[in-house]
């Protein structure tokens, strides 16, 4: 594509060198992926600076270089007068607007539903995806569990765990449009908002689940975390807001001056959608949903009472997208449980293994409370410290789980650059001594899953919390393939003769 940089809407050029018009065949921020005709963006990362890789990008065939270092780009422009160089104030912002332009603004052809919150993002976004597809609105999904089209996952390596960088995001949008999808449900994290990965996107519906302390290794303060999340509601056309969340609901309501629905578990809340009288069973959830002064009985094959709130939020998104409540209710019995979110796996001798990748103290406490509502003998729970997260959170994971299971297996997820033992020790500091339950430690998630299964017996429940990102464990910068489900199958297959 022949592109004159100054014609790209909202593209913030401060200075330009070389040819004003460039032939651009692709957009990259990773110099190892540069191919001839590429536009290379010198993105500033947490651990590196894209400006350091300009020579590598040029050697790979880049025709256009966009960065923020005026002196460095001036020097390169003198050496490479046939290449285009542009100095911008914010490389990430420039990347977002060029990506939208390069892929012909595919976002304009999609109903875009964004979900943000400390807990429940993946579940709620997946419920939106599932609900829209059941309603005949072909939808894609972008989030922690991968990239999905209507018929399932598509292979796509995400450089970030949840919300892709903008060039990847618009590439995915373009594929959805090409495949005739009409909507996309996606998780939008606070870090993605702060890093302008969704800059320039006007979401049709933004959903708020909740907020509690998280990602302080990045944001440093809770207020910065909250303000980053609020950015989503300043670039949306409609919103679904959790009235029961004291941490952020009030702040959102102050900035939304467009159509919105509130939801709550409290009958006296005056919320637009109220879910109440929730009951759990081995067949799923039953609850009453109040909307427009009518009460609708709901029965869905989903587990975890807090998921009634997540489902209600998804229903709100469908309502704001123009779907009638009667149409929504008709398809709810066909909803599917979310991968890795209160996912129940039946084991031999009436064991139940629950995969729920709760990775915050609040989420862990909630899921432990919910699993106990299922019939069981003993409860064995795996908890983890996450090596790529704030160490101050790790003892809180132990405090959230203490005394709530018969056996706790403590391990590390995504140790990153840390020794696993250091992460495990940080978690253990949260327990009172002597321990209120048996505690087992394991220095890898694989070992921990096997240890938890080994501890189980007939009629026991095994909860595997925290978990994989993109089907992997992050160890010293590398993504090591990992699957709890594969380990579970392997374990019970090897024990078949014993049962």
From TrEMBL:
Keyword annotations: Cell cycle, Cell division, Cell shape, Cell wall biogenesis/degradation, Ligase, Peptidoglycan synthesis
Localization annotation: Cytoplasm
Record domain Mur ligase N-terminal catalytic: where: 24-72
Superkingdom of origin: Bacteria
Claim: Cell wall biogenesis/degradation is one of the keywords in the record: yes
Record SUPFAM superfamilies: MurD-like peptide ligases, catalytic domain, MurD-like peptide ligases, peptide-binding domain, MurE/MurF N-terminal domain
Residue intervals of the Mur ligase central domain: 115-318
Keyword Kinase: no
Residue ranges constituting the Mur ligase C-terminal domain according to the UniProt record: 340-465
Family matches, as InterPro entries: Mur-like_cat_sf, Mur_ligase_C, Mur_ligase_C_dom_sf, Mur_ligase_cen, Mur_ligase_N, MurE/MurF_N, UDP-N-AcMur-Glu-dNH2Pim_ligase
Pathway(s) it belongs to: Cell wall biogenesis; peptidoglycan biosynthesis
GO molecular function terms listed in the Swiss-Prot or TrEMBL record: ligase activity
Pfam family, one: Mur_ligase
NCBIfam families: murE (TIGR01085), PRK00139.1-4 (NF001126)
Family designation: Belongs to the MurCDEF family. MurE subfamily.
Name of the protein: UDP-N-acetylmuramoyl-L-alanyl-D-glutamate--2, 6-diaminopimelate ligase
């Amino acid at each position: 594509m022949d592109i004159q940089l100054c014609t790209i809407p909202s593209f913030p050029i401060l200075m330009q060198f070389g040819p004003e018009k460039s032939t651009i065949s692709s957009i990259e921020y990773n110099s190892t992926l540069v191919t001839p005709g590429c536009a290379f963006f010198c993105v500033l990362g947490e651990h590196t600076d894209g400006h350091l890789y300009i020579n590598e990008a040029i050697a790979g065939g880049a025709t256009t270089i966009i960065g923020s270092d005026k002196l460095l780009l001036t020097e390169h422009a003198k050496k490479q007068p046939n290449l285009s160089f542009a100095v911008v104030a914010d490389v990430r912002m420039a990347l977002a607007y060029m990506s939208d332009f390069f892929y012909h603004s595919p976002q304009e052809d999609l109903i875009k539903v964004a979900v943000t919150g400390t807990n429940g993002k993946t579940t709620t976004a997946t419920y939106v995806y599932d609900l829209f597809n059941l309603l005949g609105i072909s939808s894609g999904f972008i989030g922690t569990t991968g990239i999905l089209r209507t018929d399932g996952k598509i292979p796509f390596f995400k450089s970030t765990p949840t919300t892709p960088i903008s060039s990847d995001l618009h590439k995915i949008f373009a594929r959805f449009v090409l495949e005739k999808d009409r909507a996309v449900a996606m998780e939008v994290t606070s870090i993605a908002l702060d890093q302008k990965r969704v800059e320039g996107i006007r979401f049709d519906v933004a959903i708020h689940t909740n907020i509690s302390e998280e990602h302080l290794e990045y944001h440093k303060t809770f207020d910065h975390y909250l303000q980053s999340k609020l950015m989503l509601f300043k670039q949306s056309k409609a919103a679904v807001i959790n009235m029961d969340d004291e941490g952020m609901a009030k702040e959102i309501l102050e900035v939304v001056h467009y159509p919105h629905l509130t939801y709550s578990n409290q009958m006296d809340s005056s919320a637009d959608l109220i879910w109440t009288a929730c009951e759990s069973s081995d067949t799923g959830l039953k609850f009453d949903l109040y909307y427009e002064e009518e009460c609708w009985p709901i029965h869905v094959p989903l587990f975890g009472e807090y998921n009634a709130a997540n489902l209600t939020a998804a229903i709100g998104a469908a309502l704001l997208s123009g779907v009638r409540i009667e149409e929504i209710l008709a398809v709810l019995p066909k909803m599917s449980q979310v991968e890795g979110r209160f996912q129940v796996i039946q084991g031999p001798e009436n064991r139940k293994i629950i995969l729920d990748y709760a990775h915050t103290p609040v989420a862990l406490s909630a899921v432990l409370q919910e699993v106990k509502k299922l019939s069981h003998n003993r409860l064995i729970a795996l908890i983890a410290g996450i090596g790529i997260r704030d160490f101050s959170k790790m003892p809180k994971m132990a405090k959230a789980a203490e005394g709530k299971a018969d056996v706790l297996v403590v391990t590390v997820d995504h140790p990153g650059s840390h020794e696993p033992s250091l992460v495990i020790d940080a978690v253990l500091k949260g327990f009172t001594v002597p321990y209120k339950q048996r505690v087992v430690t394991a220095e890898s998630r694989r070992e921990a899953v096997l240890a938890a299964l080994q501890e189980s017996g007939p009629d026991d429940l095994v909860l595997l919390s925290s978990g994989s990102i993109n089907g992997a464990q992050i160890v010293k910068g590398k993504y090591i393939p990992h699957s709890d489900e594969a380990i579970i199958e392997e374990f019970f297959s090897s024990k078949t003769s014993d049962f």
